[in-house]
Amino acid sequence: MDWEPLAAAKASISPYDLLFQALALIPFSHYFFAASFLFLIFLYSFLEIHFLQDLLTLFRGDPVTLNYNSCSELAQSVVANCKILQGRYLATPWLSSPHLQTAFLSFLGRPPPLTYRRHLFRAFDGGTIALDWLTYTDVVGGTSCMLDSSAALKGDKTPIVIVIPGLTSDSAAAYVKHLAFNLARQGWNVVVSNHRGLGGVSLTSDCCYNAGWTEDLRKIIDHIRCEYPEAPLYAVGTSIGANILVKYLGEDGANTPLVGAAAICSPWDLLICDRFINRRPMQKLYDRALTVGLQGYAQLYVFITSFCRISLLTFESSSLRDFDNHATRVLGKFETVDTYYRRSSSTNYVENVSVPLLCVSALDDPVCTSEAIPWDECRLNENIILATTPHGGHLAFYEGITASSIWWVRVVNEFFGVLRTSPHIEGRKKMQGSTMPKPLQSSIDQAPYLNVMEDGMVTAMSNEQTDAFVEDISNEHTTHSKKDEGTISDKGTSVDLTDKLNPEKQIMQQVEQNVKDLIVPVQGRIDKLSRRSRQSIWLLVYIAVITTWPFVGSVVLSVLKRRFKTFKPGTLFRK
């Protein structure tokens, strides 16, 4: 048999031709199934689906991680009585993804049917804020009904929960309706404080809300406190509303009339969240969606003077950062966008929170990253309980096969119920009632530092001694004024009074002399430091020259050695 022609024929056939012929023999349906399988793998990873993990754990869910101060009796008591926090959270199986949960909440949500009762609150600058009330009588029988009576009686002691929605959200949002309906069904009076320009109410002033604007919340709380003085006040903030709430609690400290609060999916640090939301393609979709929502908000109020100046640049914004740069920063009078983010972040105020606060966050939140959670600050504060779950999305936390309930709504309901019956809260109410407002101040303003009084007196005493000293000085001024008015007519009495004041003048002179004795050595030290700093500057210049240009440094050194034979750079170090 002649093998040479056969070998030549095989050599003439390309291996790729043989490969294509083999691939052509595979049915098309197999390619379709392979492509579908690869697409599902990509989708599973891209959407961060965790269905297989839930399946491997037999859908038992993940335990809730609690972070709180172990020395806090209040936190231990609350955690011991909150059974939901001690349990597990299992997401709805067909929503086993933070993105699926968040999208389902935004587009469907399955909110319960209800109808609010609206009250309009006029702010100090002429702005209008819509307050939507929902009470137990509104949801009796499972459906809401409009009543002709007021939302809450003046003397009613039923606790009131104030809800602060998230960015571009109002009382019509699905998660707000879930929260309001469940709380009202348990006997709470709920009021949703809509942001300015939202809730169907137009802007009536140039002032707009932002992530750090707490003045509206403060006025609303004070207003409700005055209207219903017998009712305990609670508050729930969601997303940006949670940031505003925590910032308000930190600013007012123990002076707030709130008894308890809850912050759900707070961004905490806006600067970190800004970096996060522009990091990956999926987060950029959320960034774009939020930007479109804010542009729609701004488009409704282009007739406002402040909006007219920024409207054109605002509509060209492609991200939240661009919108904040063209609109929020300008309206809020911040120097830069980062300055706005830093000053508005609630993480700076966590340590000053003085009321029981429950913080709930999902570690897979696609909008408010877990990287911004102030773990240590929350753990150090005895009033804060931080509850985190591996899954839940942004404000979603759907549970059950039908996704008819939201997990964090049940948590907040139980948390407020425990606080309502806690003996620690009664003591805190009495302390809040007896505590006078005291602004936050630095420890540098306190003793033993020198304090200069209005009349020139200098004191280094503690706060209590300073108050007594000021009181004595005021009495002295009172005596002088009486003398000028002629109330002291007896000459001998006047002479005796002058003799009594001479020791006080001597004390003042002695204090002034002591201050001078303190200033003189300090001034000498400052002069010595100035001379040392000048020597250090020349030494740094010398080091910079010899390290950057070695040849020039050697020439300069040789010239200096010739001119100053005793010159040695090392002597500067010995000085």
Topology overview:
Elements: H1 3-12, H2 15-24, H3 28-46, H4 51-56, E1 62-63, E2 65-68, H5 73-81, H6 83-86, E3 88-89, H7 98-107, E4 117-122, E5 128-134, E6 160-164, H8 174-185, E7 189-193, H9 215-227, E8 233-238, H10 240-252, E9 258-264, H11 270-277, H12 281-299, H13 305-308, H14 311-315, H15 320-332, H16 337-344, E10 357-362, H17 375-380, E11 384-389, E12 398-399, E13 405-406, H18 407-421, H19 423-434, E14 451-452, E15 458-459, H20 463-485, H21 491-548, H22 550-563, H23 570-574
Parallel strand pairs: 6-7, 6-8, 8-9, 9-10, 10-11
Antiparallel strand pairs: 1-3, 2-11, 4-5, 5-7, 12-13, 14-15
Helix pairs in contact: 21-22
Strand segment tally? 15
Portion in beta strands: 5-15%
Cα-atom radius of gyration: 35 Å
Instruction: Let me know the average pLDDT.
Output: 79
SS-derived structural category: alpha/beta
Helix content: 40-55%
CATH topology of one domain: Rossmann fold
Looking at CATH, the homologous superfamily of one domain is Alpha/Beta hydrolase fold, catalytic domain
Which stretches of 5+ consecutive residues score pLDDT under 50? Answer: 143-152, 433-501, 567-575
Question: For the report, how would you describe the main beta sheet?
Answer: 9 strands, mixed
CATH class of one domain: Alpha Beta
CATH architecture classification name of one domain:
3-Layer(aba) Sandwich
How many H/I helices? 23
Strand order of the largest sheet: 2-11-10-9-8-6-7-5-4
Distance between the ends:
102 Å
